Every structure is written in C-alpha cells, then in structure tokens.
Amino acid sequence: MRFAEAGAPARALIAVAPEGLEQALADLPPAQRAFVEATGFKASAGQVALLPGPDGAEAALLGLGTDAARVRERFSLARAAAALPEGAWRIEGDLSEELKAETALGWLLAGYRFGRYAEAAPPKARLVCPEGLDAAQIEAVAEGEAFTRDLINTPASDMGPDELEGAARLLAERHGAEAKVIKGDDLLTQNFPMIHAVGRASPRAPRLIELSWGSEGPALTLVGKGVCFDTGGLNLKPGASMGLMKKDMGGSATVLGLAHMIMATGAKLRLRVLVPAVENSVGGDSFRPGDILTSRKGLTVEINNTDAEGRLVLADALAYADETPPDLMVCMATLTGAARVALGPDIHPFYTDDEGVAQALATASGAVADPLWRMPFWTPYEAKIEPGIADLDNAPSGGMAGSITAALFLRRFVTETKRFAHFDIYGWQPAAAPARPKGGVGQGARAILAALPEVLK
C-alpha cells in the first residue's frame, strides 16, 4: 500500500467537477471530446473517463461529484483506483487540501485485499502522492489499517490468543518496542482473575499482552479487547450471532494498527498497549451465570450473562493500566450490539468525561473521514450496573441503554487516570464501499491519531 515514486512518469488524472464539465470538454481535442461524451461521463464522484491517445489511454478525467455526494459517501474518489489501467497517475486540478488527503488515503485503502486463503489481486493503478501531503504519514496510516483488517479477517482457527500474541510481538520487533506476556495460570498469581476466568475453558490459554515504546513525551495507553472467538460461553450464542465472532478481537486489532501508525510516524510520546487475549469457550471449566468474580481492582462482579465477557477482561486490563496513570487512556472494543442498533455499522460511538478530548476527537473525525459520535457516561444509569449482592453486574436486565451501561461498567475501573475515552466499535464492513472492502475494518484509529497532537500538547 504505497504511492508511486514521486519522480516516476505518470499520466494525468484531471479532476473535473460537474459544474466545470462543459469547459473541460471544450478544452479537449475533438476526438477525445466525442469519446468522453459517448461514454456518458457526468463527472460524478469517482467516475473515470479515459482519454485515448495513439498508444492507449494518455490521460483520464476524474469526476469530483457534488459536495453533497461526497458527504453521502466517504472516499468516493477512490473508486478511480479500480477503474484505471495499470501505471502511475497524478491528480491535476484544484482540490482542497482536505479532499486531496482523503483521496490519497482512500486510494491506498482501496488497494487492500485479504489474500491469505485465496488469490485477490489489488488494483494496478498507482497514485503519485499529491503535492503538499506527507506521503510517509499517509502510507503509515494505510499500513496500520491493513494490519488491523488482516487480523480481523483471519478466522479464529488461525487467530487465537497465541497468534494474536505473535502478531503483537512481530509489531514490537519491527518498531523496537518491548513486549511481555502474562499467560495461563500466571494470570492468577499476578492478579488478573477475570481475564483468567473468561479464558480458562479454552485449550488456548488466556493471556495479557503488553507492549511499551518510547521514552519521552506524554504517556498514552491503549487497551484493546482481544476475544479471539466468542461462543457466548454457557449462555451460548445462537448460530446466526456466532458467525462473525472472529471479529470480537477487533478492539485489539484496532489498537495494534493504531500503535503501528504512532510508532511508524515517530510520534514523541510514551506508548503502552494492553491486550487481554482470550477465547470464550464452552467447557467443564467455563465460568457460570450466577458466579461472582473478584476483579484485579477488588470490585466484585456478578455474572448474569457469560456472553458479556468483553467488559470482564477489559476491566482487569484497565485497572492494571490505571495503576500507572497515563496522560490519556483509550479503550477500544467490539463491546455491544446496542451500539450498532443506535448508530449502525459506520459510526463508532465513544465515551469520555473530558470536554477537551471530546472536542479534539470530533474535529479530527471530520478531518480524516473517520466518523465518531459522542455518547454519554450517564451517571443516573449507574444503579443499573449494581446488582445488590456484588459491587457490579456484568449484564443488567432490561436490555435498555446497553452500550452506556457497559461504558459505565468500564469507567468503574479507571479512577486515577484523568482523561479516559472508551470506543464501542463494530470492526466490520458489512458491504463493500469505496476504500472499504467487505470484511474487517479499523474504526476510530485515524481520528485518535489525528487528535493526539491537540489532546497531548
């Protein structure tokens, strides 16, 4: 997922808005104008019209579409990547800096293919990075996103806790980060009882993966849910709900992709990544409905549904992270179906009590085409997560405000860190869209990366 060399010969990709189409056609030689008119080119967003020459297409027109059309569909200009013939292309025309950046990133993201199990050829057209943009930064973001997508797309048969640990270790080795892992029964001796309880029924041992990188600057801790497959445990999911559960480690995949972006761009901060990696399986050693678990923080948790396991493993990891409070802590998890009901698959809700963090994320979200929506830590709902016989309930009855009550549950384990944000992501693209093939997808990472300079200044 790289740009063409800046000095390489490249054909012109001439950007044309609908209102400028008539003039653009008038500027073409008669034969090319007739050809373009015959194709029905209307300069809609991402539409391409090749301009024939003696040796094939010598250039092409790229439709910009209307402002409204581009708002309706992110990365719409990236459609051109699959429509153009092989070779290097250079965008020409008057594009805003924001549109240039979105198009450049979208082009690289459109080149992603998951080819581990079947051949999947990417588009052969390559883009020269538009002038004024940081090519290395964009490539690092695209590579981090591809890493996230690969991890999510890999089925649980090949992406269990062992393999997720292996991917994290390779990432650490690449960037000179330190990696350490607490595994199996060592989780009990080192006081991570809920990570152990959730993962103990699987023959694939549960673990806590920790990466550390950087020695100067503000401290950032990323915590990602790493449930590599979720059967629901003894509260077994129906088959239709289990089909996509290879993506239940999407939070960990996203924070690892974000960690790559941060390390590859050499950000001046101290990064820590925590991934509780488990498989929620059914077995004689499964944790049970009605059990009461004691967390690392000492809070007791009544288990009213073993399918609400993600918040349990995150709770121990968050409590551990909070013992060394960073300047900012971010938690990412494919946590609740309630978030999808509220906002659908494209918009990722986040929670924070810090107005500065919220504003920075909202601003960055629009700038990098990574849609977020702030949800409330609604304190009056705290009573819903207090069952009476324990400090906390992992699955409040009633079914209302499920994403909010899950976020409130997690917040109970972060008491020393002043700035905390929790993302309840989906991690999956249900239908192909420009720059986003169907399958695993990173959500929120680009917005977080773009917001960090403001949040951590």
UniProtKB/TrEMBL annotation:
Does Hydrolase appear among the keywords?
A: yes
- Kindly list the GO molecular function terms attached to this UniProt entry: aminopeptidase activity
Kindly give the SUPFAM superfamilies that the UniProt entry links to this protein. Answer: Zn-dependent exopeptidases
Sorted alphabetically, which CDD domains does this protein's record hold? Answer: Peptidase_M17
Q: Give the source's domain of life in one word.
A: Bacteria
Range of residues in the leader sequence: none
**Keyword Iron-sulfur on entry:** no
Q: Which UniProt keywords apply?
A: Aminopeptidase, Hydrolase, Manganese, Protease
The family database entries (Pfam families) matched by this protein are listed as: Peptidase_M17, Peptidase_M17_N_1
Residues annotated as domain Cytosol aminopeptidase: 305-312
Task: Report the sequence similarity comment from the record.
Answer: Belongs to the peptidase M17 family.
> Mind telling me what this protein is named?
Leucyl aminopeptidase family protein
Q: Which organism is it from?
A: Thioclava electrotropha
